[in-house]
Amino acid sequence: MGKRVMIVLGSPRKKGNSAKLAEHVAKGAKAGGAKVETFYLNGMDIRPCQACMKCQKKTARTCAIRDDMQVLYPKLKQADAIVIASPVYWFSLSAQTKTFIDRWFAVGVEERNIFRGKPVAILLSYGDTDPFSSGGVNALRSFQDMCRYLGAEVAGMVYGSAMEPGEIARNKGLMKEAYELGKQLAGR
Description:
- The protein has 188 residues and is of the alpha/beta class.
- The chain has helices at 17-31, 69-78, 95-102, 131-134, 136-150, 172-186, and strands at residues 4-9, 35-40, 81-89, 92-93, 119-126, 153-161.
- The longest helix is centred in the N-terminal third of the chain and has 15 residues, at 17-31.
- The model has no long low-confidence stretch (mean pLDDT 95).
């Protein structure tokens, strides 16, 4: 059986630029023999962490909030690799992406950490042509810090500039980079 690659779309646009990058990662992963599952966060009921700390009790198995994260937790655990696709909004990850990641607290701390050693990649799109003034660098840094904290492997970072939905697909070099990332994740 091939590797399991979980792709999470964090944009409100189902066919936006980060989703286009994710589509090419999925194609590459499938070509490499991986099974790919994609989740559209904006269409799911995922509430913000409430800092109740119930997930950190010895008897807790996961987060106390009963929403669609309960579907995603086992998928995160079973995945051989995770890919996060997000646009850059207000100099960081989208709210959908950030809310999803914040909820990793329930399964990413100490002996509950399901991410240790797991390959995690990020795909970013931003409207400005510069990754610094757009906030893309902030989002990449947050991703790197998160992976370092979790002990996860930074498996790849593919990012580029595009404003109109789907516009990023014209960047053939970037699409090839995303496809190759998918193939690489399938081969791990």
